[in-house]
Amino acid sequence: MFPPLLMAPMLDITNRAFRTLVRGYGGCGLFYTEMLNARRLPTESAQSPFWQGLGVERDVMVQLLGDDPEALARSVERLLPLDPFGFDWNLGCARKKITHWGWGAALLENPQATARGLRALRQATDKPLTVKIRLPEHGHPDLFKSFIKLLENEGVDAITVHARTAADGFKRPARWDAIAQVKSWTKVPVIGNGDVQSAADAQAMFQKTGCDAVMIGRGAVGKPYLFKTIINQASGATEPAPEAAKVLEAMLTCLDTALETPKGAREFKVFCRYFAQTLPVPHWFWAPLQSMTLGPELAKRARVFFKK
Questions:
Q1: Residuewise pLDDT in 10s, the chain (308 residues)
Q2: Are the C-beta atoms of residues 85 and 61 closer than 8 Å to each other?
């Protein structure tokens, strides 16, 4: 049911424009939206900039955030007319302003609330339903196995494992052995996530973990053509990476008039920061870029540096 390569949900990154950019290069079988607040979605005006800019395509999973079963179900009902591929529930966000409310990764420690949420979601839709989790902080294999079994018993169609704890952040290497462990515990498809920066990394994750699919996040922001590179390597084909200037122009085309909005400008800055990590861009590029708020200014400065 799930393709082998998926784009991870990332705040301020996996917006409509970036999904369009990656889709244009090919190779990615399924995309995820940014996490969407289930408290906000049911009552959001259809005319609001948020709703107008949401954009959901047929190859997109909508990721929901929250713990209120009623709000989660109502969010699904509101989004069903857009006909997404399916829905994902965020059980992995480690930001303190999220876990403070008992959402995201905090739900790993609250199996009762997790079960209530999944029942509400499962009753609201028969479309694919997935969860994205982290490794629990408690470090007890038996408790973690019980949690995985709970997810399976409540009817999820796949489990994405970001192989780090909330405390790990991105500072320590992803623990791929934990993905393999989860795979051994469940009959549900397991999607591996964490530290895939290249085609070789993707191949290694498949081989070392036995996962059913690989989800790529930050690695694909710096290289939005990474999915196609992985497909090419698997088939023995070779294709040079596109020039940085051409990738930038493609992103600007995808953003179009959205770059003129505060949200679009912020998202473009985030994209540039990740994209530049793969290039020899001088550190003093960032200070003036971060202070700019106008789309034309941002585009002009980015063009100067990414063409060098």
A1: 678 999 999 988 998 899 999 999 999 999 999 999 999 999 988 887 677 667 778 999 999 999 999 999 999 999 999 999 999 999 999 999 999 999 999 999 999 999 999 999 999 999 999 999 999 988 789 999 999 999 999 999 999 999 999 888 777 899 999 999 999 999 999 999 999 999 999 999 999 999 999 999 999 998 999 999 999 998 888 888 898 889 989 998 998 878 888 888 888 888 888 888 877 766 666 667 777 777 788 888 888 877 75
A2: yes
| Angle, alpha carbons 134-215-138 (nearest 5°) | 10
- Host H or E run for residue 75: helix 69-79
Question: Can you list the domains of the chain with their CATH numbers?
Answer: 5-235 (3.20.20.70), 244-306 (no CATH)
Catalytic residue at 272? no
Residue from 93, 211, 254, 272 carrying the catalytic annotation:
93
Beta bridge partners of 36: 64
Amino acid code (one letter) for 168? D
Q: How much is the CA Rg of the chain, to the nearest whole Å?
A: 19
